[in-house]
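@here heads up, posting the sequence + SMILES for the zinc ion run so it's all in one place. Ping me if the SMILES looks off, I pulled it from an old spreadsheet.
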Amino acid sequence: MTKPRTVRCPQCGKEALWAPENRWRPFCSERCKQIDLGAWAAGSYTIAGQPSDEETAADGVDFREHNR
Ligand SMILES: [Zn+2]
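bot reply: prediction finished. Complex structure tokens:
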């Protein structure tokens, strides 16, 4: 039997399965992948899967600063 290959999730540090069935590798989950993308893209991940809208909206900037 072969041991399942795992990597450490760059986001949360938990072990993530490194296999075709893990679509989010090297992350452990979709959530971690979204968080990581959002961290450098906008500093916000409130709407998972729709990351870019508030980047162009002035209201979005205000909200983000208020939220910190
Ligand atoms: Zn993770």
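MO: The first helix runs from residue 30 to 41.
MO: One more: Residues 6-55 form a domain with the Erythroid Transcription Factor GATA-1; Chain A fold (CATH 3.30.50.10).
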